[in-house]
Amino acid sequence: MAKPGKTGVSRIIAAAGYSRKGLYAAFKHEAAFRQELLVLLILSPIAVWLGEGSVEYALLIGCLLLVMIAELLNSAVEAVVDRVGAEQHELSGRAKDIGSAAVFLALVNAVLIWFFVLVL
Asked: How far apart are CA 16 and CA 116, in angstroms?
């Protein structure tokens, strides 16, 4: 059974609005997101300049977008954990640490891809 609410094009338009709000919230409230966005904006033209063909462009820019995606998900987890309560709890700390680990692995992935594509 389908959820009640918007369907078709109106659902897509609403979803795009929610996404815009999420990106704005991340930009406004998350310093790490702003820093990673700056890196994306600086390195994307460099990727096109140094990359040799569309596959390398996709790898170099795609891995940077993956970092952004991981950061958004990490920020979402942190916001929910902080909303639930301010008291220290093992599971809250674990959730935040796992989110942070996801961002770290995305960053390691990006560094390795840039190294393999541009150096080796």
From this structure: 35
Architecture of domain 30-118: Orthogonal Bundle (1.10)
Instruction: Tell me, letter by letter, the H, E, C secondary structure of 21-50.
Output: HHHHHHHHHCHHHHHHHHHHHHHHHHHHHH
Provide the residue-wise pLDDT of the chain in tens; the chain has 120 residues.
666 788 889 999 999 999 999 999 999 999 999 999 999 999 999 999 999 999 999 999 999 999 999 999 999 999 999 998 888 899 999 999 999 999 999 999 999 999 999 998
Q: Tell me the catalytic residues.
A: 71
